[in-house]
């Protein structure tokens, strides 16, 4: 067995140039397969990662609408909902948010142009943790904290667009706005938020202030930001943490399962890629069969000699079969290397994280060997059928 | 005629025929009786087309007779299956061909060692014995050379070393000097003489009377039959 392998290896190594040319088809085929599948997986991974950043960590919990009467909720969220949520492992931040009904009141900038024209702006109430939960970025100033909330301080934070409409762009002079007839100090301006876009157009005050000024009874919703990958888990736990007595009265908006997104993208890409790779491999296999057949004809006298030295037909057949398997395996190995390099290279240029299935990387050389096995069958049979007499007579 | 009991003959052919199916049917070998005793040096001489190549193939178990009896070392080869014949061929017969049939991509040493691959000799033993065989034919200094860098005479000596290394019962040479100049041919014949003295059984097939005369016993083949 060992000898057979040695003989086959020597046979393959005898013609290095031909070996390279023979493996070329398989190299290209396997490289196409590994490269395309690898890039497909990598690309799908990137798409999913973008989803991760934008929405995959956001959960919103709010009371279920009561069937029938408009606007009436089945239950009320407790004020300490953020604290309850914060205790769950996997939660980065949580905060409440509520719309306030200010009737026909307008919002005015006292120091504004024209003495401050009134604007119809949404006024909202939030807990201190909301800023972090919606990935808030401050343009200037600060967000209110738990202290403002507890004391019911008459302070507000402006959303980016609300600030533009009111003509306020600095807070160091402690500008004030009127909501209706009540003055509030502007302590900060938001640059951006993620998820709850209406905050950009709103005037936001602490919950404690809203309770006094507008009789806010309970928060409308809880915004939760989870760690990556924890969203599904938290979505299941949050209602129980907030409302242990009747979690079913709460409605949870959670991102779709990541796996579902990834699979959808991959299956589309891979069908086409695999087809391309298969065609290339077919061509590669035919190449091996062709060259092996040629090499059998060329080595007739060697075959005859081996038979004269006591080789049975079986030995000759196995030698040629093993030779073509080696060629296929080498092609597969080289092709895998090229495919992996391709994937890594493209990922590097695009600044992606390369993702490659281990099974693909280790299985591909074996696939090459299998192709060699199939391609070598006919030439090996041909070789074993050669009569030693005819083989040795030629000079 | 000596009445002394000879050791069992190496080759024993009785009424061997080899016909190639036609049409027209070719009767390459007809009713050949041939006995080669141990240690004999026999030459089979004949013009081309006389059937000597066919006889060589039959002797070397490369071809099957159409009829008759062929015993090699007392083993009846007619009833053997292909596998068994291949093993017998590898173990009992050493071939030397006109065109050497060396593998160009392997060293001289590997070429010689190759003849024991199919007989099941372990690699280390093969190489050791190949070295000894090459020393015996005077090529100790060429072991790691490629056959293509050797002269014709040297190549044929490599082929002889390859034929000898498996310690065969019969050395079968087919026109061994056909591709060589007279000086190299003489050197090869000298090696044969030496082997004969050491007790090796040799059968040399040739069309060259000069080569044939070196043998202890000569057989002429004409139109597929042997003449003494």
Report on the architecture of this protein.
The complex is a heterodimer of chains A (395) and B (228). Chain A has helices at 2-13, 16-56, 81-86, 130-133, 146-151, 160-166, 207-214, 231-242, 258-298, 300-308, 313-350, 358-384, 388-393, and strands at residues 58-63, 91-99, 107-109, 122-126, 137-141, 155-158, 176-179, 182-192, 202-206, 221-226, 250-253. Chain A has 395 residues and is an alpha+beta fold. Chain A has two domains: 2-51 and 259-393, no CATH class; 57-256, no CATH class. In chain A, strands 1, 2, 3, 4, 5, 6, 7, 8, 9, 10 and 11 form an eleven-stranded mixed beta sheet that branches. In chain A, strand 7 and strand 8 form a beta hairpin. In chain A, helix 2 packs across helix 11 (313-350). The longest helix of chain A has 41 residues, at 16-56. Chain B has a single domain (39-61, 81-227), classed as 3-Layer(aba) Sandwich (Rossmann fold), CATH 3.40.50. In chain B, strand 7, helix 6 and strand 8 (202-206) form a beta-alpha-beta unit. By secondary structure, chain B is of the alpha/beta class. Chain B is 32% helix and 25% strand. The mean pLDDT of chain B is 87. A six-stranded mixed beta sheet of chain B has the order 6-7-8-3-9-10, sandwiched between helices. A four-stranded antiparallel beta sheet of chain B has the order 2-1-4-5, covered by helices on one side. Chains A and B meet through helix 1, helix 10, helix 11 and helix 13 of A and helix 2 of B. Chain B: One of its GO terms (cellular component) is plasma membrane. Chain B: InterPro entries: AAA+_ATPase (IPR003593), ABC_transporter-like_ATP-bd (IPR003439), ABC_transporter-like_CS (IPR017871), ABC_transpr_LolD-like (IPR015854), MacB-like_ATP-bd (IPR017911), P-loop_NTPase (IPR027417).
């Amino acid at each position: 067995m060992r000898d057979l392998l040695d003989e086959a290896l020597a046979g393959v190594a005898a013609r290095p140039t031909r070996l390279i040319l023979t493996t070329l088809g398989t190299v290209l085929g396997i490289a196409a397969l590994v490269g395309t599948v690898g890039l497909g997986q990598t690309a799908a991974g990137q798409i999913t990662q973008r989803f991760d950043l934008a929405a995959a960590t956001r959960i919103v919990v709010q009371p279920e609408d009561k069937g029938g009467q408009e606007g009436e909720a089945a239950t009320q969220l407790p004020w300490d909902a953020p604290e309850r949520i914060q205790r769950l492992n996997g939660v980065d931040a949580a905060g409440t948010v509520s719309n306030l009904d200010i009737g026909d009141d307008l919002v005015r900038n006292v120091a504004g142009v024209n003495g401050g024209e009134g604007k119809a702006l949404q006024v909202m109430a939030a807990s201190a943790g909301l800023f972090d939960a919606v990935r808030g970025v401050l343009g200037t100033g600060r967000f209110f904290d738990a202290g403002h909330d507890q004391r019911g301080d008459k302070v507000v934070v402006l959303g980016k667009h609300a600030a533009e409409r009111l003509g306020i762009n600095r807070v160091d002079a402690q500008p004030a706005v009127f909501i209706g007839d009540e003055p509030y100090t502007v302590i900060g301006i938001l640059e951006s938020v993620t998820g709850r876009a209406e905050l950009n157009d709103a005037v936001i005050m602490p919950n404690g202030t809203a309770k006094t000024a507008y009789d806010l009874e309970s928060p409308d919703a809880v915004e939760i930001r989870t760690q990556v990958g924890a969203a599904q888990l938290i979505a299941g736990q949050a209602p129980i943490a907030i409302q242990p007595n009747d979690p079913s009265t709460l409605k949870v908006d959670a991102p779709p399962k990541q796996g579902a997104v990834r699979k959808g993208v991959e299956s589309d890409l891979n069908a086409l890629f695999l087809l391309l790779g298969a065609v290339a491999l077919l061509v590669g296999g035919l190449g091996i069969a062709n060259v092996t057949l040629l090499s059998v004809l060329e080595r007739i006298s060697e075959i005859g000699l081996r038979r004269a030295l006591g080789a049975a037909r079986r030995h000759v057949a196995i030698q040629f079969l093993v030779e073509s398997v080696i060629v296929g395996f080498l092609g597969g190995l080289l092709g895998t290397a090229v495919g992996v390099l391709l994937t890594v290279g493209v990922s590097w240029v695009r600044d992606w994280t390369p993702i490659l299935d281990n099974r693909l990387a280790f299985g591909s050389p074996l696939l090459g060997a299998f192709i060699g096995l199939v391609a070598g069958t006919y030439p090996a049979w041909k070789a074993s059928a050669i009569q030693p007499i005819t083989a040795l007579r030629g000079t | 005629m000596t009445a002394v009991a000879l050791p069992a003959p190496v080759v024993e052919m009785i009424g061997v025929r080899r016909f190639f199916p036609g049409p027209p049917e070719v009767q390459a070998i007809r009713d050949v009786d041939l006995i080669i005793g141990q240690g004999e040096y026999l030459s089979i001489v004949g013009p081309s087309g006389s059937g000597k190549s066919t006889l060589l193939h039959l002797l070397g178990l490369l071809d099957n007779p159409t009829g008759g009896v062929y015993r090699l070392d007392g083993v009846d080869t007619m009833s053997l299956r292909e596998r068994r014949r291949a093993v017998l061929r590898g173990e009992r017969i050493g071939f030397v061909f006109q065109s050497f049939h060396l593998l160009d991509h392997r060293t001289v040493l590997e070429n010689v060692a190759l003849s024991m691959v199919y007989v099941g000799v372990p690699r280390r033993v093969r190489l050791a014995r190949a070295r000894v065989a090459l020393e015996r034919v005077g090529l100790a200094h060429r072991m790691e050379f490629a056959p293509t860098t050797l002269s014709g005479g040297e190549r044929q000596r490599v082929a002889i070393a390859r034929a000898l290394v498996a310690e065969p019962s019969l050395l079968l040479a087919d026109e061994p000097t056909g591709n060589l100049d007279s000086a190299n041919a003489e050197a090869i014949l000298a090696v044969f003489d030496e082997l004969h003295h050491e007790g090796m059984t040799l059968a040399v097939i040739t069309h060259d009377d000069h080569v044939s005369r070196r043998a202890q016993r000569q057989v002429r083949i004409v139109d597929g039959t042997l003449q003494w």
